[in-house]
Specification:
The protein has 554 residues and is an alpha+beta fold. The protein has eleven helices and 28 strands. It is 26% helix and 26% strand. The radius of gyration is 32 Å and the shape is elongated. Bound molecules: oxidized coenzyme A (CAO).
């Protein structure tokens, strides 16, 4: 089969142009006129077409090179047989690719060899510490490596710190011994089962940990590091931040004709795509990554807050800088997760809010009478434990509030437990730790546990398990102020109780107005699961329970 040069054609008057994108690789099959390179002059970018159909055997230019009319930029075999060629040269090029694959396979094999099997060495042995279960999370970024090679550690010493959407967690060492190779880096996303750290572990009655010289061959470990065995496929970087940019009206888009054509075919708006090419140029990969990220978000039902998706009109942002100075800052992970959760709940749940005032005059005198007891116990009794107890009783009496809806299976999931989330305002965003089995706990226990969880939330010390499994949520703004509000249901729960600030009000007792301390309650509920009459029953019951706390004992 004949080999043919690929030359730069007439550039329409431009003298020297810069290669800004190479669109094919060795071994690619192309049709006549398929774009091979994109070049850019002062005035325009142009794609250089293939002179015929066939297979690319060589590309002799790279991004940044300057070319002019007549320059040879590559070679191809005419014929268009994509399924490999018996031509010597072509086979040679193909062999190069095969070699790469073989080398990769070997490297994977080596990585496989470095997998866990403990290696004995005198009175000590080698262990590869793996990532333990992360309470249902995976692909969690490593934010800190707490040890260095050669460090001596005890059981439970922190090896690395990871941060999920809602919390930071330390991964403890399961052994005492000496740290060998660290197999992850800061920023890596890790999941259960991934190789984390190599260690030399002292066996009972054994010697001191082996010295550096006794470590296994550096090569093998190096292979392990670059491609740790069993490492789950890394997802592409969070697409929303990697490829998405709010559109800037009037901004110039840098993209070649093939990229523009691809974007048109996908219906992708180029002004929203961040280019990773030279001078911010948008490449085909950027379009593909953007489309993929949009699809993933739609399929997960999580759209970028305000960013449209699932048929929801996009909120177009104006160029705010035209109105005055602005600054942009990245959202924290908690803020971004909360924004998405709120939007998901708001869009999926038909919300109604039922209001009620509870007379807590007697409850408050009882609570205040516990001050001295509280000081002894080191626990502060706030109104929250009473609210938790009253809600647990109401959930048990009106179990239609203790459900989740499975719309796909057309089923109602009824829960036989009563776990309640409490919304906690923290400097880094809203967190909702969960108190388990509220119905089985006393007021002091609830006071202590809610204070401890709220503090952990503020210190970013909550474990994922401490934020999961709630049946219902209480959000209390009573310590701050306000007369009522309409909280958003923390779906898949079906109701949430908002609590505002108690105030003295004149209450008619049939003869006179009496000054009573009234606590405003705002119960938002999912109207698919709960009907209005039940919501009124729920708030009335809460009001009765808080009005006469003796009934909480019954
Ligand atoms: N009416 C009047 N006073 C109230 C009250 C109410 N409903 N609720 C609490 N208080 C009082 C407490 O008694 C305490 O007063 P004293 O110090 O005089 O006893 C003071 O307000 C502060 O209480 P607190 O807020 O420290 O304790 P808490 O147990 O009531 O609440 C917590 C704990 C975690 C719920 C709260 O700190 C918090 O973070 N609230 C904000 C929740 C939030 O942001 N919700 C919005 C979510 S949706 O955007």
């Amino acid at each position: 089969m004949s080999e043919q040069e690929i030359k730069v054609p007439d550039l329409g008057g431009a003298d020297e142009v810069e290669v800004i994108e190479v669109l094919v690789s060795q071994g690619d099959s192309v049709e006549e006129e398929d774009p091979i390179l994109t070049v850019e002059s002062d005035k325009a970018s142009v794609e250089l077409p293939s002179p015929g159909a066939g297979k690319i055997t060589k590309i002799t230019v790279k991004v940044g090179d300057k070319v002019k009319e007549g320059d040879v930029v590559g070679m191809m075999e005419a014929g268009g047989d994509a399924g490999g060629s018996d031509d010597d040269k072509g086979t040679g090029e193909q062999a190069g690719t095969d070699k790469d694959q073989e080398a990769k396979a070997q490297s994977e094999d080596k990585a496989e060899e470095t997998k866990p099997a403990p290696k004995k060495s005198g009175g000590s042995r080698k262990e590869t510490v793996k990532v333990p279960p992360l309470d249902g999370f995976d692909n969690v970024p490593v934010i800190e490596i707490n040890v260095s090679e050669g460090d001596e550690v005890e059981v439970d010493d922190a090896l690395v710190t990871v941060e999920s959407d809602k919390a930071t967690m330390e991964i403890p060492s399961p052994f005492a011994g000496k740290i060998g190779k660290i197999l992850v880096s800061e920023g890596d996303k890790i999941s259960e089962g991934l190789d984390l750290v190599e260690m030399t572990v002292v066996e009972e009655g054994g010697e001191e940990p082996a010295s550096e010289a006794e470590e296994p061959s550096g090569d093998a470990r190096q292979e392990g590091k670059s491609e740790p065995a069993g490492k789950p496929e890394e997802p592409k970087p969070a697409p929303a931040s990697a490829t998405y940019e709010p559109p800037t009206p009037g901004a110039k888009v840098h993209a070649g004709p093939a990229v523009r054509k691809l974007a048109r075919e996908f219906g992708a708006d180029l002004t929203r795509i961040k280019g990773s090419g030279p001078k911010g140029r948008i490449l085909k990969d950027d379009v593909q990554a953007y489309v993929k990220s949009q699809l993933q978000q739609t399929q997960q039902g999580s759209t970028v807050a305000g960013g449209g998706g699932a048929g929801i009109p996009v909120v177009k942002l104006p160029d705010f800088s035209q109105f005055g100075d602005i600054e942009r800052e990245s959202m924290s992970r908690v803020m971004f997760a909360t924004a998405n959760n709120m939007q998901r709940s708001w869009l999926n749940v038909p919300h109604v809010t039922q209001f009620e005032d509870a007379d807590i005059t007697d409850m408050e005198s009882f609570r205040k009478a516990q001050k001295a007891a509280g000081e002894k116990k080191g626990v502060k009794m706030t109104p929250l434990p009473f609210l938790l107890k009253a809600c647990a009783t109401a959930l048990a009496e009106l179990p239609q509030f203790n459900v989740s809806l499975d719309m796909e299976r057309k089923e109602v999931v009824r829960k036989q437990y009563i776990h309640i989330g409490i919304a906690v305002d923290t400097p880094h965003g809203l967190m909702v730790p969960v108190i388990r089995d509220v119905d089985k706990k006393g007021l002091w226990e609830l006071a202590a546990e809610s204070a401890e969880l709220a503090q952990k939330a503020r210190d970013k010390q909550l474990k994922p398990a401490e934020m999961q499994g709630a049946c219902f949520t209480i959000t209390s703004l009573g310590g701050i102020g306000g007369t009522a509000f309409t909280p958003i249901v923390n779906t898949p729960e079906v109701a949430i109780l908002g609590v505002s600030k108690a105030a003295m009000k004149p209450v008619w007792d049939g003869k006179d107005f009496q000054p009573r301390l009234m606590l405003p309650l705002s119960l938002s509920y999912d109207h698919r699961a709960v009907n209005g009459a039940d919501a009124a029953r729920f708030t009335t019951l809460l009001s009765q329970l808080l009005g006469d706390i003796r009934s909480l004992l019954l």
